[in-house]
Design goal:
single chain; alpha+beta; Arc Repressor Mutant, subunit A; 3 domains; 3-stranded antiparallel beta sheet; 13 strands; DNA-binding
Length: 427
DNA sequence: TTGATGACCAGCGATTTCTT
DNA sequence: AAGAAATCGCTGGTCATCAA
């Protein structure tokens, strides 16, 4: 397979959830007046759980929003409108907004299921921006040893064993900086098989902190404690930017990368996670390829570029026996991997999902389909292993961080913990 | 006018400390 | 022990600024 040609850069978009398009179009069905559309949009944003964060948490109801919240919602609203105009989903005529045929057909695709909907959007976005192609190309070029894998390690002082109370002077900051750089060098070598000294960059970072007046050039003098968060944020941003631009040659800034990969994740063409077990930070890899053509039945074409290359999503069928066996193998391996650090038979299903998705290079959606199929067979006793799935607590029922990930819907119910028995004797 | 960029901050959930 | 309050760490979204 010849690698495809890198496309022109992607512009920045300002919202993550692809449902926003649908929510806007639905609002437009009811009104053509902008202020009224916004009112409906606000309610629907709430109804579809389009929270401020990716974890879809909503606090207040749409009736009791603060001025500031309304301002934020309006900001998002304007962005959704402007992007919808670009894709001709709506048109704007004399202060009135109307759905176009294209908009109506996108709504139709939503009713056929989320996968159909996101794929229609993928076509619209790719026609205009080629952003997914650009990122997928970058991902495949990320590392010679491990093509496709991109890591963005992240370690706060806390995670490296420093307590906030022991970081007071320039000297302390330098100690953290040094340990962080060492850790990052390690990650580069383990994950990307690249040995590289980060000492130079580390010095650059420290120098910029001094230059901006956040810390003093003198080792023993204390920095102002209310700048602590700002200083730590500098570390985070600096290394993220370094990894993206220097290691992965991504030419745009972090937010742009975040937004496009998260959109790609919803379509199922790129996987990205902050919850990969035993790793601090973010891991991104493609669950698709861009090639002229392929004979493999595991890949489905979803978009064709002008130069003849196509975007194929990796979507193996669960009911083909070889696929099923491979899935079960990885499932069992990942289960025992996680069991080593866990006393209970039950382990976190999202964590297991991360390991299996990575091994098979499949999206969360495909994982869900496989697990569904395998679980049903297990219930009727037609499987060589025994699987138990349970619901611990759903994200909205708890404040625990480890449950911030979306649970997996299997056999019609949300599940978040799993146990596996290979002997079939019962657990 | 539009997009890129970096700084900033509200607010969330985790963690720690205080209180009963 | 358990709940309440205070503090901490971090993120997404907003905004000002700059360049084209």
């Amino acid at each position: 397979m010849k690698e495809s040609q890198t496309q022109k850069p992607s512009a920045v978009r300002k919202f993550y959830h692809l449902e926003y398009f649908y929510v806007l179009l639905k609002s437009l069905e009811k009104s053509s007046d902008k202020d009224q559309i916004f009112e409906i949009f606000k309610d629907l944003k709430q109804e579809y759980r389009l929270g401020e964060s990716k974890y879809r948490k909503l606090t207040s109801d749409s009736q009791n929003l603060s001025e500031r919240q309304i301002q934020k919602y309006r900001y998002t609203f304007e962005k959704v409108i402007s992007e919808s105009l670009e894709y001709d989903l709506i048109n704007h005529d004399g202060g009135k907004y109307q759905l176009t045929d294209k908009g109506r057909s996108l709504m139709e695709s939503y009713n056929q299921g989320f996968q159909t909907y996101t794929r229609s959007l993928c076509v619209l976005m790719e026609e205009k921006y080629n952003a997914f192609r650009y990122i997928i190309d970058r991902l495949y070029k990320s590392s010679r040893e491990n093509p496709g894998l991109l890591i963005l390690p992240l370690y706060s002082p806390l995670q490296l064993g420093f307590d906030k109370s022991e970081i007071k002077t320039t000297k302390d900051i330098k100690r953290y900086a040094e340990r962080l750089a060492k850790k990052l060098e390690q990650d580069l070598s383990t994950f990307l098989k690249e040995s590289r000294s980060l000492a130079l960059e580390n010095n650059k970072l420290l120098a910029s902190l001094v230059e901006e007046g956040l810390i003093s050039a003198d080792d023993s003098s204390e920095f102002s404690q209310n700048k602590y968060i700002a200083i730590i944020a500098k570390f985070r941003d600096f290394w993220r930017k370094f990894f993206l631009q220097e290691i992965y040659l991504y030419e745009y800034y972090y937010t742009s990368f975040e937004i496009w990969t998260y959109r790609a994740k919803q379509i199922g063409i790129i996987h990205s996670t902050e919850f990969y077990p035993h790793f601090n930070g973010k891991i991104v890899y493609p669950t698709s390829v861009i090639v002229r053509n392929t004979d493999s039945k595991d890949f489905k074409k979803i978009y064709t570029y002008k130069d003849g290359y196509s975007l194929y999503i990796h979507e193996p069928e669960p009911d083909i026996e070889a696929n099923e066996n491979l899935f079960i193998d990885y499932l069992v391996n990942a289960y025992f991997d996680l069991r080593r650090t866990n006393r209970s038979y039950f382990i976190s299903l999202p964590a297991l999902r991360e390991l299996v998705c990575y091994k098979l290079k499949i999206s969360e959606y495909v994982f869900k389909q496989f697990l569904d199929s395998v679980y049903l067979k297990n219930l009727t006793g037609n499987l060589k292993i025994k699987i138990s799935l349970e619901v611990d607590r759903l994200p909205e029922e708890t404040k625990a961080m480890y449950l911030k990930q979306e649970p997996v819907m299997v056999d019609g119910r949300y599940r978040n913990i799993i146990a596996i028995d290979v002997s079939r004797g019962g657990i």
